[in-house]
Amino acid sequence: MEIKVEVLKGQNRDKWNSLFNNNGYDVLGLITSGSCAIDLNSIECSLKVHDSIIINSISESRLHTCSDDFECYVLYINKTFFEEIIFNDVPQLMSISDAMQKNKVLHLKDEDYNFFLKSYQYIDYCIKQNGQKFYNDIIRHQFTSIFLWLLSIIPSEDLLLNLERNRQNDIAEKFLKSLKSNFHNEHKVEFYAENQFITPKYLSTVVKSATGETVHGWISKYIILEAKAQLKSTGKTIQQIANELNFPNQSFFSKFFKKSTNLTPSEYRKLCPCGAAWF
Questions:
Q1: What's the distance, CA 251 to chain centroid?
Q2: Tell me: the pLDDT tens digits for 217-250?
Q3: 24: left (phi over 0), alpha (psi -120 to 50) or beta
Q4: How far is CA 245 from its chain centroid?
Q5: Beta strands 3-9; 71-78: pairing state
Q6: Nearest-5° Cα angle at 137, 253 to 171
Q7: How does DSSP assign the chain, residue by residue?
Q8: How far apart are CA 56 and CA 79, in angstroms?
Q9: Cβ-based neighbours of 36, under 8 Å, separated by 6 or more
Q10: What is the pLDDT of residues 245-278, one digit of tens each?
Q11: Contact 35/48 with Cβ under 8 angstroms?
């Protein structure tokens, strides 16, 4: 499961420690009732109703005190899931990825609080409807709206540190947009560097710095996601899929796929019949 929603109520320190120290997930918390004090990486933070907290996957937090009526919605976000939203849907969200890696308390206005509360409740409902025909798209687009709303309210100094960071984000965003349009045919770094009149080495350095992933890594992710989608949802042969993704032959494609997934395309197709959910 790439995403999940939990509700924390009352003075349950063990539940807090379990929910907010879940390795591999970034966490968004929304205080819906009462108040609390927490230790976040040995720094005490006070939270009250209408506050939202971002806690990254490598942080440690402990519930110190809380009121009897304390309640908090907890939204888990897997890093891979967030990256897929960035490069599949909204590259502009890359500028929020740095802010997501910082622990932050946001004091929300009424309209922001109401939006997040309704969004969390709606996502919780949608997650339970995993047999719905368009489940994957519904979940992804709901999360996209949450990230875009966050992008609009997080202070600008937390999103873009300086002019050079602006420039790096611009290069990385252009790379992701170009990759989305060209990955079926273009698998080499040189192609994407030439599009921006920069060297492959500089593009690789900037993309790694801005996104935490290499250019080769992004190219592979696009190819693998597309291959998985076609294996799951179409009746195309493996040879046809290999051709569409511009591999010289089926054998080369199969080796590439297995290196990334530990499964051959045929094995993956057997495990994921048409229409299966990928969360």
A1: 32
A2: 999 988 998 998 889 888 899 999 999 999 999 9
A3: left
A4: 24
A5: antiparallel
A6: 65
A7: --EEEEEEESS-HHHHHHHH--TTEEEEEEEEESEEEEEETTEEEEEETTEEEEE-TT--EEEEEE-TT-EEEEEEEEHHHHHHHHHHT-GGGHHHHHHHTS-EEEE--HHHHHHHHHHHHHHHHHHTTTTSTTHHHHHHHHHHHHHHHHHHHS-HHHH--SHHHHHHHHHHHHHHHHHHHHTTT---HHHHHHHTTS-HHHHHHHHHHHHSS-HHHHHHHHHHHHHHHHHHH----HHHHHHHTT-SSHHHHHHHHHHHHSS-HHHHHHHS-TT----
A8: 10
A9: 46, 47, 63, 64, 65, 66, 67, 70, 72
A10: 999 999 999 999 999 889 999 999 888 654 443 3
A11: yes
- Residue 186 is which amino acid? E
The total number of residues shown for the chain amounts to: 279
Closest CA to 171 of 139, 215, 131, 129: 215
8 Å CB contact between 187 and 197: no
Q: What angle do CA 125, 129, 131 make, to 5 degrees?
A: 170
